[in-house]
Amino acid sequence: MDQSDVVIVGAGAAGLSLAYHLVEMGGPGAPPTVTLVEALDGPLRPPDRTWCFWEKGESEYEDAVAASWRRLRVLGRDGRAITDRTCPYRYKMIRSAGFRDLMERRLARHAEVRMVRADVDVVRDTRGGAEVIGTAAGGRRLTMRARWVYDSRPPRDLPRARSTLLQHFRGWFVHTEAPAFDPDVVLLMDFRTPQPRHGVSFGYVVPLGTTEALVEYTEFSSAPLSEDAYERALLHYTSEVLGLGPLRIRGHEQGVIPMTDAVFPRRVGRSVFRIGTAGGATRSATGYTFAAVQRQSRAIAAAYRRGAVPVPPPPYSARVRAMDAVLLRLLAQGRADGAEFFTGLFERTPMARLLRFLDGDTGLLDDIAIGLRTPVGPMLRTAAELPLVPRRRRPARTVPASRAPREEVT
User: Fold this and answer.
1) N or C: which terminus of the chain has fewer CB atoms within 10 Å of its end residue's CB?
2) Where is this region: Disordered (predicted)?
3) What is the pTM (predicted TM-score) of this model?
Protein backbone atom coordinates (compact mmCIF):
# COMPACT_ATOMS: atom_id res chain seq x y z
CA MET A 1 0.00 0.00 0.00
CA ASP A 2 1.39 3.39 -1.06
CA GLN A 3 1.41 6.36 1.35
CA SER A 4 1.96 10.03 0.54
CA ASP A 5 0.90 13.44 1.85
CA VAL A 6 -1.32 14.19 -1.13
CA VAL A 7 -2.94 12.09 -3.87
CA ILE A 8 -4.26 13.90 -6.94
CA VAL A 9 -6.64 11.96 -9.19
CA GLY A 10 -6.41 13.12 -12.79
CA ALA A 11 -3.39 14.53 -14.63
CA GLY A 12 -5.09 17.17 -16.73
CA ALA A 13 -4.63 20.90 -16.27
CA ALA A 14 -6.15 20.95 -12.77
CA GLY A 15 -4.19 17.96 -11.46
CA LEU A 16 -0.87 18.97 -13.02
CA SER A 17 -1.26 22.58 -11.88
CA LEU A 18 -1.99 21.58 -8.29
CA ALA A 19 0.97 19.18 -8.15
CA TYR A 20 3.23 21.89 -9.56
CA HIS A 21 2.13 24.55 -7.08
CA LEU A 22 2.33 22.19 -4.11
CA VAL A 23 6.00 21.39 -4.71
CA GLU A 24 7.16 24.68 -6.27
CA MET A 25 5.63 27.17 -3.86
CA GLY A 26 8.16 28.27 -1.27
CA GLY A 27 7.46 28.29 2.43
CA PRO A 28 8.42 26.73 5.75
CA GLY A 29 9.09 23.02 5.87
CA ALA A 30 9.63 20.46 3.15
CA PRO A 31 7.25 20.20 0.17
CA PRO A 32 4.60 17.48 0.47
CA THR A 33 4.99 14.10 -1.13
CA VAL A 34 2.52 13.92 -4.03
CA THR A 35 1.13 10.97 -5.97
CA LEU A 36 -0.41 12.06 -9.27
CA VAL A 37 -2.71 9.43 -10.79
CA GLU A 38 -3.16 9.54 -14.56
CA ALA A 39 -5.77 7.41 -16.35
CA LEU A 40 -4.68 4.53 -18.55
CA ASP A 41 -5.05 4.82 -22.30
CA GLY A 42 -8.73 4.27 -23.03
CA PRO A 43 -12.13 5.90 -22.52
CA LEU A 44 -11.22 7.48 -19.16
CA ARG A 45 -8.23 9.32 -20.58
CA PRO A 46 -9.24 12.70 -22.04
CA PRO A 47 -8.19 13.49 -25.61
CA ASP A 48 -5.76 16.25 -26.45
CA ARG A 49 -7.42 19.65 -26.48
CA THR A 50 -6.76 23.36 -26.59
CA TRP A 51 -7.13 25.87 -23.77
CA CYS A 52 -7.31 29.64 -24.16
CA PHE A 53 -7.25 32.31 -21.48
CA TRP A 54 -6.04 35.86 -20.93
CA GLU A 55 -3.60 37.33 -18.47
CA LYS A 56 -1.33 40.32 -17.88
CA GLY A 57 2.31 39.75 -18.74
CA GLU A 58 3.85 36.30 -18.54
CA SER A 59 3.07 33.34 -16.31
CA GLU A 60 4.97 30.27 -15.20
CA TYR A 61 3.45 28.45 -18.19
CA GLU A 62 4.81 30.77 -20.88
CA ASP A 63 6.97 28.02 -22.37
CA ALA A 64 3.76 26.10 -23.20
CA VAL A 65 1.98 29.02 -24.91
CA ALA A 66 1.52 28.07 -28.57
CA ALA A 67 0.31 31.51 -29.70
CA SER A 68 -1.04 34.78 -28.31
CA TRP A 69 -2.95 37.84 -29.54
CA ARG A 70 -3.73 41.39 -28.46
CA ARG A 71 -6.94 41.92 -30.43
CA LEU A 72 -10.34 40.20 -30.35
CA ARG A 73 -13.27 40.55 -32.75
CA VAL A 74 -16.99 39.87 -32.49
CA LEU A 75 -19.25 39.84 -35.57
CA GLY A 76 -22.98 40.47 -35.19
CA ARG A 77 -25.62 38.59 -37.07
CA ASP A 78 -25.74 41.44 -39.61
CA GLY A 79 -21.98 41.36 -40.03
CA ARG A 80 -21.17 44.45 -37.98
CA ALA A 81 -17.72 44.08 -36.46
CA ILE A 82 -16.52 44.99 -32.98
CA THR A 83 -12.73 44.80 -32.77
CA ASP A 84 -10.80 45.93 -29.72
CA ARG A 85 -7.40 45.54 -28.12
CA THR A 86 -7.11 43.37 -25.05
CA CYS A 87 -4.47 45.51 -23.29
CA PRO A 88 -3.26 45.08 -20.58
CA TYR A 89 -4.10 41.42 -21.27
CA ARG A 90 -2.91 38.98 -23.87
CA TYR A 91 -5.21 36.26 -25.14
CA LYS A 92 -3.20 33.02 -25.11
CA MET A 93 -3.49 29.47 -26.41
CA ILE A 94 -2.02 26.42 -24.72
CA ARG A 95 -2.30 22.94 -26.18
CA SER A 96 -2.75 20.19 -23.65
CA ALA A 97 0.12 18.09 -25.03
CA GLY A 98 2.55 20.99 -24.68
CA PHE A 99 1.29 21.81 -21.19
CA ARG A 100 1.60 18.19 -20.09
CA ASP A 101 5.15 17.95 -21.45
CA LEU A 102 6.20 21.15 -19.65
CA MET A 103 4.64 20.10 -16.34
CA GLU A 104 6.07 16.58 -16.48
CA ARG A 105 9.58 17.97 -17.08
CA ARG A 106 9.24 20.31 -14.13
CA LEU A 107 7.70 17.75 -11.81
CA ALA A 108 10.45 15.26 -12.71
CA ARG A 109 12.88 17.56 -10.90
CA HIS A 110 11.08 16.89 -7.62
CA ALA A 111 11.70 13.60 -5.87
CA GLU A 112 8.54 14.27 -3.83
CA VAL A 113 6.32 13.70 -6.90
CA ARG A 114 5.42 10.25 -8.19
CA MET A 115 3.24 9.62 -11.24
CA VAL A 116 1.06 6.50 -11.39
CA ARG A 117 -0.97 5.20 -14.35
CA ALA A 118 -4.27 3.68 -13.21
CA ASP A 119 -8.03 3.94 -13.67
CA VAL A 120 -9.53 5.03 -10.34
CA ASP A 121 -12.86 3.63 -9.16
CA VAL A 122 -12.85 4.35 -5.41
CA VAL A 123 -12.03 7.57 -3.53
CA ARG A 124 -13.03 7.58 0.13
CA ASP A 125 -12.17 8.75 3.63
CA THR A 126 -10.26 6.48 5.97
CA ARG A 127 -9.01 6.90 9.50
CA GLY A 128 -6.53 9.78 9.49
CA GLY A 129 -6.90 10.57 5.78
CA ALA A 130 -8.28 9.07 2.59
CA GLU A 131 -7.55 6.32 0.10
CA VAL A 132 -7.70 5.92 -3.66
CA ILE A 133 -8.20 2.49 -5.23
CA GLY A 134 -7.70 1.80 -8.90
CA THR A 135 -6.58 -0.64 -11.55
CA ALA A 136 -3.16 -0.38 -13.18
CA ALA A 137 -2.02 -1.97 -16.43
CA GLY A 138 -2.46 -5.72 -16.49
CA GLY A 139 -5.36 -5.59 -14.05
CA ARG A 140 -3.16 -5.00 -10.98
CA ARG A 141 -5.13 -3.37 -8.16
CA LEU A 142 -3.55 -0.37 -6.43
CA THR A 143 -4.41 1.26 -3.11
CA MET A 144 -2.93 4.70 -2.39
CA ARG A 145 -3.40 6.49 0.92
CA ALA A 146 -2.77 10.12 1.81
CA ARG A 147 -3.66 12.80 4.30
CA TRP A 148 -5.48 14.72 1.55
CA VAL A 149 -6.97 13.60 -1.77
CA TYR A 150 -7.94 15.92 -4.66
CA ASP A 151 -10.21 14.49 -7.35
CA SER A 152 -10.39 16.29 -10.70
CA ARG A 153 -12.49 13.73 -12.61
CA PRO A 154 -15.66 15.15 -14.19
CA PRO A 155 -18.80 14.20 -12.25
CA ARG A 156 -21.01 11.47 -13.71
CA ASP A 157 -24.10 13.53 -12.85
CA LEU A 158 -24.44 17.26 -12.45
CA PRO A 159 -25.62 18.68 -9.10
CA ARG A 160 -29.17 20.00 -8.91
CA ALA A 161 -29.63 23.21 -10.87
CA ARG A 162 -32.32 25.68 -11.86
CA SER A 163 -30.88 26.18 -15.34
CA THR A 164 -28.51 24.12 -17.43
CA LEU A 165 -27.39 24.68 -20.98
CA LEU A 166 -24.75 22.71 -22.83
CA GLN A 167 -21.92 24.45 -24.61
CA HIS A 168 -21.20 21.97 -27.38
CA PHE A 169 -18.89 22.34 -30.33
CA ARG A 170 -16.84 20.81 -33.07
CA GLY A 171 -13.78 22.42 -34.61
CA TRP A 172 -11.49 21.85 -37.56
CA PHE A 173 -7.79 22.67 -37.74
CA VAL A 174 -7.69 23.90 -41.34
CA HIS A 175 -5.13 24.88 -43.94
CA THR A 176 -6.30 27.05 -46.84
CA GLU A 177 -4.71 27.33 -50.28
CA ALA A 178 -4.74 31.14 -50.20
CA PRO A 179 -4.23 33.54 -47.25
CA ALA A 180 -7.59 33.76 -45.46
CA PHE A 181 -6.93 34.74 -41.82
CA ASP A 182 -5.73 37.81 -39.98
CA PRO A 183 -3.02 36.37 -37.70
CA ASP A 184 -3.30 39.32 -35.30
CA VAL A 185 -7.01 38.94 -34.43
CA VAL A 186 -9.02 36.13 -32.81
CA LEU A 187 -12.62 35.98 -34.03
CA LEU A 188 -14.14 35.27 -30.64
CA MET A 189 -17.81 35.11 -31.65
CA ASP A 190 -19.27 35.21 -35.16
CA PHE A 191 -23.06 35.20 -34.98
CA ARG A 192 -23.59 34.87 -38.73
CA THR A 193 -24.61 31.25 -38.12
CA PRO A 194 -28.16 29.85 -38.07
CA GLN A 195 -29.51 30.48 -34.56
CA PRO A 196 -31.29 27.81 -32.48
CA ARG A 197 -34.75 28.54 -31.09
CA HIS A 198 -33.42 28.73 -27.51
CA GLY A 199 -29.81 29.59 -26.82
CA VAL A 200 -27.25 30.86 -29.29
CA SER A 201 -24.77 29.62 -31.90
CA PHE A 202 -21.61 31.19 -33.26
CA GLY A 203 -18.39 30.56 -35.15
CA TYR A 204 -14.98 30.92 -33.55
CA VAL A 205 -11.68 31.36 -35.40
CA VAL A 206 -8.24 31.17 -33.80
CA PRO A 207 -5.65 32.11 -36.45
CA LEU A 208 -2.32 30.27 -36.39
CA GLY A 209 -1.04 32.04 -39.51
CA THR A 210 -2.52 33.51 -42.68
CA THR A 211 -3.46 30.05 -43.99
CA GLU A 212 -3.80 28.07 -40.72
CA ALA A 213 -6.54 28.30 -38.09
CA LEU A 214 -8.75 26.47 -35.64
CA VAL A 215 -12.32 27.04 -36.85
CA GLU A 216 -15.19 25.95 -34.60
CA TYR A 217 -18.95 25.86 -34.62
CA THR A 218 -20.43 26.27 -31.12
CA GLU A 219 -23.92 26.22 -29.63
CA PHE A 220 -25.26 27.08 -26.19
CA SER A 221 -28.42 24.97 -26.20
CA SER A 222 -30.15 22.08 -24.45
CA ALA A 223 -28.67 19.12 -26.34
CA PRO A 224 -25.60 18.27 -28.46
CA LEU A 225 -25.83 17.65 -32.19
CA SER A 226 -24.86 14.55 -34.10
CA GLU A 227 -21.39 14.46 -35.62
CA ASP A 228 -22.93 14.77 -39.08
CA ALA A 229 -24.83 17.89 -38.00
CA TYR A 230 -21.64 19.50 -36.70
CA GLU A 231 -19.87 18.64 -39.95
CA ARG A 232 -22.65 20.23 -41.98
CA ALA A 233 -22.57 23.33 -39.78
CA LEU A 234 -18.79 23.63 -40.16
CA LEU A 235 -18.97 23.11 -43.91
CA HIS A 236 -21.59 25.87 -44.17
CA TYR A 237 -19.60 28.18 -41.91
CA THR A 238 -16.24 27.73 -43.64
CA SER A 239 -17.56 27.82 -47.20
CA GLU A 240 -20.68 30.03 -47.15
CA VAL A 241 -19.95 32.41 -44.24
CA LEU A 242 -16.16 32.70 -44.19
CA GLY A 243 -15.71 31.91 -47.88
CA LEU A 244 -12.43 30.10 -47.26
CA GLY A 245 -12.36 28.25 -50.56
CA PRO A 246 -10.45 24.97 -50.90
CA LEU A 247 -9.00 23.79 -47.60
CA ARG A 248 -7.49 20.76 -45.90
CA ILE A 249 -8.71 19.56 -42.51
CA ARG A 250 -5.70 18.53 -40.44
CA GLY A 251 -7.47 17.61 -37.22
CA HIS A 252 -10.54 18.26 -35.12
CA GLU A 253 -11.79 18.95 -31.60
CA GLN A 254 -15.22 18.15 -30.20
CA GLY A 255 -16.80 18.29 -26.77
CA VAL A 256 -19.57 19.30 -24.41
CA ILE A 257 -19.29 21.70 -21.46
CA PRO A 258 -22.19 21.99 -18.98
CA MET A 259 -23.18 25.60 -18.33
CA THR A 260 -25.12 25.40 -15.10
CA ASP A 261 -25.98 27.34 -11.96
CA ALA A 262 -25.51 24.14 -9.94
CA VAL A 263 -23.28 24.39 -6.88
CA PHE A 264 -20.35 21.98 -7.21
CA PRO A 265 -19.19 20.72 -3.80
CA ARG A 266 -15.48 21.27 -3.23
CA ARG A 267 -15.24 19.17 -0.08
CA VAL A 268 -16.85 15.73 -0.28
CA GLY A 269 -15.28 14.10 2.78
CA ARG A 270 -13.08 14.89 5.74
CA SER A 271 -9.98 14.53 3.56
CA VAL A 272 -11.41 14.42 0.02
CA PHE A 273 -11.80 17.48 -2.20
CA ARG A 274 -12.75 18.20 -5.79
CA ILE A 275 -10.82 20.56 -8.03
CA GLY A 276 -11.05 21.95 -11.55
CA THR A 277 -14.42 21.65 -13.24
CA ALA A 278 -15.45 19.07 -10.63
CA GLY A 279 -14.78 21.74 -7.99
CA GLY A 280 -16.69 24.53 -9.73
CA ALA A 281 -13.77 26.20 -11.55
CA THR A 282 -15.69 26.51 -14.84
CA ARG A 283 -17.40 29.89 -15.18
CA SER A 284 -21.01 28.84 -15.62
CA ALA A 285 -22.00 31.53 -18.12
CA THR A 286 -18.93 31.24 -20.36
CA GLY A 287 -17.13 27.93 -19.84
CA TYR A 288 -13.77 29.60 -19.12
CA THR A 289 -11.76 27.56 -16.61
CA PHE A 290 -7.98 27.77 -16.94
CA ALA A 291 -7.39 31.00 -14.98
CA ALA A 292 -9.70 29.88 -12.16
CA VAL A 293 -7.85 26.56 -11.93
CA GLN A 294 -4.60 28.46 -11.38
CA ARG A 295 -6.12 30.63 -8.65
CA GLN A 296 -7.56 27.55 -6.97
CA SER A 297 -4.26 25.63 -7.16
CA ARG A 298 -2.23 28.49 -5.71
CA ALA A 299 -4.69 28.94 -2.85
CA ILE A 300 -4.63 25.22 -1.96
CA ALA A 301 -0.82 25.17 -1.98
CA ALA A 302 -0.66 28.31 0.18
CA ALA A 303 -3.09 26.82 2.72
CA TYR A 304 -1.06 23.61 2.86
CA ARG A 305 2.14 25.52 3.54
CA ARG A 306 0.43 27.50 6.33
CA GLY A 307 -0.67 24.28 7.98
CA ALA A 308 -4.36 25.10 7.40
CA VAL A 309 -6.93 22.64 6.06
CA PRO A 310 -6.27 22.96 2.30
CA VAL A 311 -9.88 23.25 1.13
CA PRO A 312 -10.22 24.52 -2.47
CA PRO A 313 -11.65 28.05 -2.27
CA PRO A 314 -14.74 29.12 -4.23
CA PRO A 315 -13.42 29.99 -7.70
CA TYR A 316 -16.03 32.75 -8.13
CA SER A 317 -17.84 35.05 -5.76
CA ALA A 318 -21.50 34.65 -4.82
CA ARG A 319 -22.28 37.79 -6.83
CA VAL A 320 -20.67 36.35 -9.96
CA ARG A 321 -22.59 33.08 -9.56
CA ALA A 322 -25.86 34.97 -9.10
CA MET A 323 -25.31 37.03 -12.27
CA ASP A 324 -24.46 33.89 -14.22
CA ALA A 325 -27.62 32.17 -12.96
CA VAL A 326 -29.73 35.04 -14.30
CA LEU A 327 -28.04 34.97 -17.69
CA LEU A 328 -28.36 31.20 -18.04
CA ARG A 329 -32.09 31.27 -17.30
CA LEU A 330 -32.57 34.23 -19.65
CA LEU A 331 -30.99 32.26 -22.51
CA ALA A 332 -32.57 28.93 -21.59
CA GLN A 333 -36.05 30.46 -21.55
CA GLY A 334 -35.51 32.36 -24.82
CA ARG A 335 -36.24 35.74 -23.21
CA ALA A 336 -33.48 37.49 -25.10
CA ASP A 337 -31.94 37.09 -28.52
CA GLY A 338 -28.59 35.50 -27.65
CA ALA A 339 -26.74 36.85 -30.67
CA GLU A 340 -27.95 40.41 -30.04
CA PHE A 341 -27.31 40.08 -26.30
CA PHE A 342 -23.64 39.21 -26.68
CA THR A 343 -23.04 41.53 -29.64
CA GLY A 344 -24.48 44.45 -27.68
CA LEU A 345 -22.42 43.58 -24.63
CA PHE A 346 -19.17 43.69 -26.60
CA GLU A 347 -20.28 46.74 -28.53
CA ARG A 348 -21.00 48.83 -25.43
CA THR A 349 -18.23 47.67 -23.08
CA PRO A 350 -14.47 48.24 -23.44
CA MET A 351 -12.73 44.92 -24.06
CA ALA A 352 -10.38 45.12 -21.06
CA ARG A 353 -13.28 45.75 -18.67
CA LEU A 354 -15.30 42.93 -20.21
CA LEU A 355 -12.38 40.50 -19.89
CA ARG A 356 -12.04 41.40 -16.21
CA PHE A 357 -15.78 40.79 -15.84
CA LEU A 358 -15.64 37.42 -17.60
CA ASP A 359 -12.81 36.41 -15.27
CA GLY A 360 -14.87 37.39 -12.20
CA ASP A 361 -12.39 40.16 -11.35
CA THR A 362 -14.63 43.24 -11.36
CA GLY A 363 -16.17 45.13 -8.47
CA LEU A 364 -19.82 45.87 -7.79
CA LEU A 365 -19.84 49.22 -9.64
CA ASP A 366 -18.27 47.67 -12.76
CA ASP A 367 -20.80 44.83 -12.63
CA ILE A 368 -23.69 47.30 -12.41
CA ALA A 369 -22.30 49.34 -15.31
CA ILE A 370 -22.00 46.22 -17.47
CA GLY A 371 -25.46 45.03 -16.39
CA LEU A 372 -26.99 48.29 -17.60
CA ARG A 373 -25.68 47.45 -21.07
CA THR A 374 -27.86 44.32 -21.23
CA PRO A 375 -31.67 44.02 -21.72
CA VAL A 376 -32.50 45.39 -18.26
CA GLY A 377 -36.22 44.51 -18.17
CA PRO A 378 -35.89 40.79 -19.01
CA MET A 379 -32.85 40.52 -16.73
CA LEU A 380 -34.73 42.02 -13.76
CA ARG A 381 -37.80 39.83 -14.33
CA THR A 382 -35.60 36.75 -14.53
CA ALA A 383 -33.71 37.74 -11.38
CA ALA A 384 -36.99 38.22 -9.51
CA GLU A 385 -38.33 34.77 -10.39
CA LEU A 386 -35.09 32.87 -9.90
CA PRO A 387 -35.50 32.19 -6.14
CA LEU A 388 -38.85 30.49 -6.91
CA VAL A 389 -37.42 28.10 -9.50
CA PRO A 390 -36.72 24.61 -8.04
CA ARG A 391 -33.36 22.95 -8.56
CA ARG A 392 -33.53 19.69 -10.51
CA ARG A 393 -30.97 17.01 -11.24
CA ARG A 394 -29.78 16.45 -14.77
CA PRO A 395 -27.42 13.67 -15.89
CA ALA A 396 -24.12 14.72 -17.43
CA ARG A 397 -24.61 13.68 -21.06
CA THR A 398 -20.95 13.13 -21.78
CA VAL A 399 -17.53 13.60 -20.26
CA PRO A 400 -16.90 17.32 -20.75
CA ALA A 401 -14.06 18.12 -23.11
CA SER A 402 -11.90 21.19 -22.97
CA ARG A 403 -11.33 23.49 -25.83
CA ALA A 404 -10.51 27.00 -26.82
CA PRO A 405 -11.66 29.42 -25.65
CA ARG A 406 -14.26 27.94 -23.35
CA GLU A 407 -12.44 25.01 -21.90
CA GLU A 408 -13.40 22.35 -19.41
CA VAL A 409 -10.37 21.45 -17.32
CA THR A 410 -10.15 18.02 -15.74
Assistant:
1) N
2) 391-410
3) 0.89
